[in-house]
Design brief:
There is one protein chain. The chain is of the alpha/beta class. Helices cover 29% and strands 25% of the residues. It has eight helices and eleven strands. It has helices at 32-43, 55-63, 78-89, 110-115, 186-194, 199-204, 208-213, 233-244, and strands at 6-12, 26-27, 30-31, 47-52, 68-70, 97-100, 127-133, 147-154, 157-164, 176-185, 218-223. The strands form two sheets. Strands 7-10-8-9-11 form a five-stranded mixed beta barrel. It has a two-stranded antiparallel ribbon with strand order 2-3. The mean pLDDT is 94.
Length: 251
C-alpha cells in the first residue's frame, strides 16, 4: 500500500558519457526513463517523481503520465539531485522515507523496490540498500561489480561493513553484488549530502563509503537477482531483449 510519507525519486540527466541521452532511449516504444517510472509506480509504496535538469526528460515523463521536478544542472551526484527535489516537493517536511531509484534500471523489479524499505523498520538503520549473491564467476574479480561486505542482520539481510571494487571478502564463501538502490530516512539523507567526500569514497569511487566513514549504518536486503544497469549501447540492446521477453532481471 502506498504511504503518504514515502517518496520515490528517480534522478536522471542527459549527459551520460558512454550513452548520451540515455534516459530517452527507446525500449519497446517507450523512453527508458518511463519504464523506470512505471516500475516504481508498480511498487505501490509511495509517490513517484523524476528529478532532472533536462526539459526533454521532464516532458517525456509528463507526456506518459509521470511527475517530474526540475533541479539544478551542477549536482555532483544523484543523491544531491534528489535532495533538492525533495525540498521542492515537500517543503512541509511530511516525507519521512526517500527511495533513490537510478534512472538507468529499466528492468528493476517492483518487489525489489518494496524490499529496500524493510531495514528502515529498525530505528538504528540510517540507509538501506540491496544486494544479490554473485553467481557469475567473472564478477568476483570484476572492478565494475561493486561488492558489499557485510555481516548478518537477520533473514536475507546484511549490515554493511564495507563496499569495494576488489574481490572481497577473501577465502571461501558467498560474495554479494551491491545493487545501487537506496532508501534514506529524511534526516540521514540531509546529513549525507552535507558531508564532504570521504577518503575511502574518493579512493574506491563509491559514494556510499562516505556514510560508513561518518558512522552511519547501512543495511541491505538480499534479493534474487541484479537488475540490468544500462550504461552502453550493448546494455541498451540487452534491455530491449529482456523487456521484449517479459523478464525483469538477469542472474
Amino acid at each position: 500500500m502506498a504511504r503518504s510519507d514515502t517518496l520515490i525519486l528517480i534522478p536522471a540527466r542527459m549527459a551520460a558519457t558512454r550513452l548520451p541521452g540515455k534516459p530517452l532511449k527507446d525500449i519497446g516504444g517507450l523512453p527508458m526513463i518511463v519504464h523506470v517510472v512505471r516500475r516504481a509506480m508498480d511498487a505501490g509504496i509511495g509517490r513517484v517523481a523524476v528529478a532532472t535538469d533536462s526539459p526533454q526528460i521532464a516532458a517525456a515523463v509528463k507526456s506518459h503520465g509521470g511527475e517530474a521536478v526540475m533541479t539544478r544542472a551542477d549536482h555532483p551526484s544523484g543523491s544531491d539531485r534528489i535532495f533538492e527535489a525533495l525540498g521542492t516537493i515537500d517543503a512541509g517536511n511530511t516525507i519521512a522515507t526517500i527511495i533513490n531509484v537510478q534512472g538507468d534500471l529499466p528492468t528493476i523489479a517492483p518487489e525489489d523496490i518494496r524490499a529496500v524499505v524493510t531495514p528502515l523498520e529498525d530505528k538504528n538503520v540510517d540507509i538501506s540498500t540491496l544486494a544479490a549473491v554473485i553467481h557469475n564467476a567473472d564478477e568476483h574479480a570484476n572492478p565494475n561489480v561493486v561488492k558489499l561486505v557485510g555481516t548478518s542482520a537477520g533473514p536475507n539481510r546484511l549490515r554493511a561493513l564495507y563496499f569495494t571494487r576488489a574481490t572481497a571478502p577473501t577465502g571461501d564463501g558467498l560474495r554479494y553484488h551491491h545493487i545501487g538502490l537506496y532508501a534514506y530516512r529524511r534526516e540521514a539523507l540531509a546529513r549525507f549530502v552535507a558531508l564532504p567526500p570521504s577518503p575511502l569514497e574518493q579512493r574506491e569511487k563509491l559514494e556510499q563509503l562516505r556514510a560508513l566513514e561518518a558512522g552511519m549504518r547501512i543495511d541491505a536486503m538480499i534479493v534474487d537477482s541484479v537488475p540490468l544497469g544500462v550504461d552502453t549501447p550493448d546494455d541498451l540492446e540487452t534491455a530491449r531483449s529482456i523487456l521484449a521477453g517479459g523478464s525483469s532481471t538477469r542472474q
